[in-house]
Specification:
- The chain is mainly α and about 70 residues long.
- The longest helix has 30 residues.
- The protein has a domain of about 30 residues.
């Protein structure tokens, strides 16, 4: 039986220990709050993702045009 293979009682579900959530101050370093580099990094990431999407769409269009 499966209960013979698993350690502990057969009906007890396994649950990992919960860790407390960090406070808001611990989520963002002070350097990012002061110079705005986090916002700048977010905007650069969105811009790169948009450029990649347009590039893939352009390649797709080129393939359909050549066909």
């Amino acid at each position: 039986m499966l209960r013979d293979v698993l350690p502990g009682p057969g009906w007890a579900p396994y649950r990992a220990a919960a860790r407390p959530l960090p406070h808001k101050r611990e989520l963002v370093p002070e350097e990012c709050e002061e110079d705005g580099s986090c916002v700048r990094g977010f905007l650069v990431g969105i811009g790169l993702e948009g450029a990649a999407a347009l590039g893939i769409y352009g390649i797709w269009q080129l393939c359909h045009l050549v066909r």
